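FYI - complex with guanosine-5'-diphosphate, inputs then prediction.
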Amino acid sequence: IINGSNVSEKPRDRLLGGLLTADFDEASCLSRYQSSLYRKLSPYRPSEYLVSKLRSYEMLHKRCGPGTKAYKEATKNLGHDEDNYANKSAGECRYIVWVAVYGLGNRILTLASVFLYALLTERVVLVDQRKDISDLFCEPFPATSWLLPLDFPLMGQIDSYNKEYSRCYGTMLKNQIINSTSIPPHLYLHILHDSRDGDKMFFCAKDQSLIDKVPWLIVKANVYFVPSLWFNPNFQTELVKLFPQKDTVFYHLARYLFHPTNQVWGMVTRSYDAYLSRADETLGIQVRVFSRRAGYFKHVMDQIVACTQREKLLPELASPGSEPTNTTNIPKLKAVLVTSLYPEYSDNLKSMYWERPTSTGDIVEVYQPSRERFQQTDKKIHDQKALAEMYLLSLTDKIVTSARSTFGYVAHSLGGLKPWLLYQPARGKTPDPPCARATSMEPCFLTPPTHGCQAKKRTDSAKIVPFVRHCEDLRHDGLKLF
Ligand code: GDP
């Protein structure tokens, strides 16, 4: 409720500390300038250097983007007679194409990673629009387009690119056919959970000496590879200037890039205004169940209750006979936003707080927007609901998320929230402790390379730079910025 409720009284920072330009038409994408109405004033400011880098990126994108002379020039010789490419010019612009694969959380994390790599290497990011990306997000770059044109010469081949593809960088390394004197017009980067170290380490200085000259990079990724970019000393120098607060990388990039379309934003604001805006405190709980037979499990329900009570995120129930009669304190209204594919977790929580009073007298209201039951990636309305829910979670005051879930990572990082992470249950048991508070709000790189750029094979990649360490939810694995 823009005029009337407490939303309008919050101090505003419409352009997010200069992160956003004022150059867009507001009505075409309401979330872009309205999101600040729904958030607390951010304690994290983007650096001036990041802001200036984004403005120069926008100029570059405008100069090289679809429909420009430069784009035409760059695509002219692509896809046919590439073997005789050596003497041909691809023009002044270089590109990186992001291909939509895996779930929405994965996609958001990888697009942010690809964008950061593009910022560091002065490439132009274009996104594969054949999936529902434009039903989810507005255009982030002014006076141009981030959508890869449908008549892009390699469009017909992209889906078949995999580890076996002859222009897959890791495969070329393995087959020792890297030749820095002949630069291919395009390369495929395979940065998935099953990648080899050779694929994952494309950012190292020795790899960049070739890759940097290739006009077109096509990427399929499902991991947040940002933490590993710091292993390249050249990038590191830049990154420290861009992000003096190291655990704000995704936070700023996501707020710059990902503006939900009006349709999704309507879902976000209707939920917020109906269920969250009047509460004294809000808590988000994201429940992701990864076991093969997914659904409702008592041990997961017990874990949610154990975590929220132990960490004092929700009040305990009054024991029978000792219902609070003391009403000197004004009871607080706590709104709990639950997101899950399954409805049972929030149904149970709701019954729990309806059937018995709390020991504090506080009122707990439980709300779950959707109940999709199973993942239906690429179905428009399903993906829109998923995005609306990630975004809503990011608007809560405190958040509990599930270990290893990129859906949860997006929600807490976008919100600037250090989550309580529900450990992944093993053998059908409630983990003890049930959850732990994260010390950084960044997403985790779930399947990082085993070592750094210079290091020998067995050097732990969490020991290379002091602020890149293992993730809290994986204990001795993953990489994350702190
Ligand atoms: P991850 O698998 O947890 O890392 O997250 P992803 O977002 O990559 O993939 C899971 C997909 O399942 C989501 O994109 C949604 O399509 C669906 N999904 C999982 N959890 C939820 C949820 O809480 N709400 C909704 N609406 N969809 C969900």
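Residues 102-106, 288, 339-341, 370, 372, 375, 377, 382, 385-386, 389, 405-407 surround guanosine-5'-diphosphate (CB under 6 Å). Residues 174 and 265 are 46 Å apart (CA to CA).
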